[in-house]
Amino acid sequence: MTEKERARARAIVRQHLVQGDALGWFEALYAGAAGDAAIIPWADLMPNPNVIQWLDQHQVAGAGREALKIGCGLGDDAEELARRGFSTTAFDISASAIAWCRRRYPQSPVAYVVEDLFRAPSAWQGTFDFVLESYTLQVLPPSLRRAAISHIASFVAPHGTLLVVSRGREPDDSQGEMPWPLTKEELTDFLRLGLREVSIEDYLDDEVPPVRRFRVAYHREA
Ligand SMILES: C[S@@+](CC[C@H](N)C(=O)[O-])C[C@H]1O[C@@H](n2cnc3c(N)ncnc32)[C@H](O)[C@@H]1O
Questions:
Q1: How far apart are CA 178 and CA 76, in angstroms?
Q2: Using a 6 Å CB cutoff, which residues line ligand 1?
Q3: CA angle centred on 134, ends 69 and 183, rounded to 5°
Q4: pLDDT grade for 1, boundaries at 50, 70 and 90
Q5: What confidence score (pLDDT) does residue 124 get?
Q6: Exposure check for the chain: N or C terminus, fewer CB within 10 A?
Q7: Pocket test for ligand 1, best of 6, 29, 88, 136 (most atoms within 8 A of CB)
């Protein structure tokens, strides 16, 4: 992503935030891109390497298991989960993003659906063996994160796994502009919601310049 695209996205964010609308900018961004992925700051058109690395390290196989991708964007991570055998549902608040996924992957086994995390179907509660949250929490203003975390946690089935990958910061680091990195303290909310932390990694990734990431795996007991 170039600085020009990042600045354009941030201008759209600001326009919506001053109107008290923290979620409307996603659809504005995808619709305004008119099929040009270079306009979407996070769209690399490949699965997230921080996710791939974890899936490989843990030899994750999805046959006979259900996965849910939170905020799927243009679908690369969801397709990766399906490729590994998961029966995969992927959702995004942006109708334009979901239409774009369907155009990119017309034969896909992934169920792509338009849904708002904060109004997700009650049928999803406790349903998914593997839930993947990569980079959505960090584009939600901190004021919405506690509610977002609560919804994400609710989707994990008994014995299921949740993988969260986000930008990370210390509590006294500046939040800066979108994407707003998370603190470890914010992530402890998942523990209050009945999940057990299996592992937490705090590292600099391979981007140039490197980005501090938190990668956390949680398990729900029976
Ligand atoms: C930073 S992007 C990451 C997309 C994808 N995970 C990736 O890594 O390319 C966050 C995505 O979450 C979606 N999103 C934001 N708020 C959402 C909400 N309340 N419900 C569902 N999706 C949401 C956005 O539309 C966007 O596609």
A1: 22
A2: 23, 26, 42-43, 48, 71-73, 77, 91-94, 97, 116-118, 134-136, 139-140
A3: 135
A4: low
A5: 98
A6: C
A7: 136
For 97, how many CA atoms within 13 A lie in the half-sphere containing its CB?
30
* Average pLDDT of the chain to the nearest whole number: 96
Q: Is residue 3 very low, low, confident or very high in pLDDT (cuts 50, 70, 90)?
A: confident
Rounded distance, CA 88 to CA 190, Å?
22
- In tens, the pLDDT along 205-215 reads 999 999 999 99
One-letter amino acid at 78 equals: A
